[in-house]
Design a protein that fits this description.
The chain is mainly β and about 150 residues long. Helix content is about 10%, strand content about 45%. An eight-stranded antiparallel barrel has the order 2-5-6-7-8-9-10-11. A hairpin with a 2-residue loop joins strand 3 and strand 4. This is Lipoprotein.
Length: about 150
């Protein structure tokens, strides 16, 4: 598993960071302590048509052994397991893992994460590690959600 993830992490490290340090070659199990915790995106409107909409947001819960992504309130949830990471610098990390199997297949999870004091910027890559498939900016929060507004507290 480590050899597979190392094969995915090295090309991404070379593409995303111009100078790869000696630390980038090491692959560690789990997630780095610097990024563990609860994160959320800002709320935005999602339209259904006929002037109907709802407020949507995403949350991210990172623990030592897994990542749980929730897409808004009472919607889809993704679980990432078998995590391994590589440290590019004090604030830059590459994480690799597997999604929970849905339909018998377990697609690869590969993300580049940049941590600042208040935000976590994430770039998602495809399985080959050569193409960015999405990105998001998450903000730290307490992990508690308001029952009235159904939105995470700061």
């Amino acid at each position: 598993m480590k050899k597979f993830l190392l094969g995915l992490l090295i090309p991404v490290a070379c593409v995303s960071v111009s100078s790869v340090s000696a630390n980038a070659a090491k692959v560690y199990d789990g997630t780095p302590r610097a990024i563990r915790g609860y994160y959320r995106t800002k709320m935005h409107k999602t339209y259904f048509g006929h002037h109907k909409y709802y407020w949507n947001f995403r949350t991210l819960h990172i623990t030592g052994s897994r990542i749980t992504e929730d897409y808004g309130a009472q919607t889809d949830q993704a679980l990432v397991y078998r995590l391994a990471h590589s440290n590019l610098s004090k604030h830059d990390f590459i994480l690799g893992g597997r999604y929970v199997p849905m339909g018998g297949e377990s697609p690869a999870y590969l993300a580049y994460m940049h941590k600042t004091k208040k935000t976590l910027k994430v770039d998602y890559f495809d399985e080959s590690g050569s193409k960015v498939t999405g990105h998001a900016t998450y903000y730290k929060f307490s992990g508690k959600t308001s029952k009235v507004r159904n939105y995470p507290y700061k």
